[in-house]
Amino acid sequence: MNDSLHIACPHCDAVNRVPASKLKSHPVCGKCKQALFQAQPLELTAANFQQHVTRNDIPVLVDFWAPWCGPCRMMAPAFAQAAHLLEPEMRLAKLNTEAEQALAGRFNIRSIPTLAIFRGGQEIARQPGAMDATNIVRWARSQI
């Protein structure tokens, strides 16, 4: 049985094979030698979105947000706190819908903030609206 997981590096986007039993042992990227998990959300762009959403074997929780959105700015610290609680079982990432309008359109984002969980490149759950860290963690764990 293969217990290795593919994990995309948040720094250089290289895909690493990590034994599942070693996820909580602070694995580092084989290419850039930086930590694969930092307990903080990763900034996604059009350039790295596919790599992280399709190549990670762990679920990816994406916060679709915009800098002008008050509820998005209010939820940002809670989302960062949720990263501390959910990694490494899940990668947390943020996508600025103002800067990446084509991606926001592709996923039919109509209100922000919107949280979406991806597994294997497919969206498996979506939740619109701001939440505190406890509710983000509760919702995310209930979906995977």
TrEMBL record:
GO terms for biological process: cell redox homeostasis. Residues 33-144 form the Thioredoxin domain. It comes from the Bacteria. Keywords: Disulfide bond, Electron transport, Metal-binding, Redox-active center, Transport. Signal peptide: none annotated. One of its GO terms (cellular component) is cytosol. Pfam families: Thioredoxin, Zn_ribbon_Thio2. One of its GO terms (molecular function) is metal ion binding. PANTHER family: GEO12009P1. Belongs to the thioredoxin family. This is Thioredoxin. It comes from Ferrigenium kumadai.
